[in-house]
Amino acid sequence: MDEPAVWSGEDGGRGGRPLQGWTVAITRPEGQGEALARRVEALGGRAWLAPLLAIDRFPDRLLPALRRWGDWDALVITSANAARALAEALALTGRADAPRPVACYAVGRASAAAVARAGLTAEVPEGVRTGADLADVLVQRWAGRRLRVLYIHGELADPNFAARLAEAGADVTAVCAYRTRETVADVAAWRRVLAASPHLAVTLYSPSAVRAWLRQLQPLLLESGRTVAFVCVGPTTARAAREAGLADVWMAPASHDDGVAEALAAVAARGGHKPRRNEEGERT
User: What range(s) does the Tetrapyrrole biosynthesis uroporphyrinogen III synthase domain occupy (predicted)?
Assistant: First the structure.
C-alpha cells in the first residue's frame, strides 16, 4: 500500500483561496478544532467541527506531584492535553503557573503552547514529531545522569516511553492525567455532508480517531461511493490510517494547524488525489 503523501501548500491557482469548494471535517475533540476551522475558512473552505473523540482530564491526580514540585529536575509532556491537565491542576491549587521553572520538554508546537499557559517554557527538540522521537533525544542527552523526571501522559500513551527514559538513568514518576474516549458520530449529518460536498477532506489526529472512523463512519463512506482525502497529523496516525486500509492518506508536514492547513491546500491543488510516483519514487 502507498505511503501517505507529505506536501507543503499550493493554492492551485485559486487566488489565495485554495480550499474553495472543499468541506473539511475537523474531528478533534470539542474545543480543540476552532483555530483550524478559522484557517480553513480563511482559505476559502467550509469547516465542519465533527469530533470523533472526547477528552476526560484528571487534574487531581497531579496534585501530589505539584506538592513535590521542588523534587523534579525535568518535566516531560508529549501532548497538549497533558499540558492542559497540568494547568487545571495548578488552578486547583490556586496558582496560575508552576511554582518554579524546571527543564521542560514537549512534542509539537501545540504541546509547547499549552505548557506555556502553565507558566513554563518547553523545548521541542529539532526533528521531534512523536513521543518515541523525544525519548530517543532524551536518552542521548541524559545518558548516565540521575535526573528526577515528572512525565505527564494519557491513558493510551506508549508504555515503553517511561522505561526508555529510565534506561538513560532518569528516575521517572509517570502520572496518567487524561483519557481519550470515542464519541457517537452524528451519522445523519455525515450522510448529508457526504451527499452535499463536492470535495471532502477529513482530518485525523491520532490512531484513536482512525479507529473511531473505521467503526462508525467507514461503512457509510463505502455505502456512499464517495472518495475522501484523509489528512493525518503525525507519522503514527498516518501509519494507522494506511494500515487500516484507508485510501488517499496524506500526512501534514508539521503537527500544528499551519502544517495541517498546508496539507489541505496541497490536497485541494491536486484534486484530492495523491500524485503518482515515477520509477525512482519521485512525486510527479
Answer: 35-259
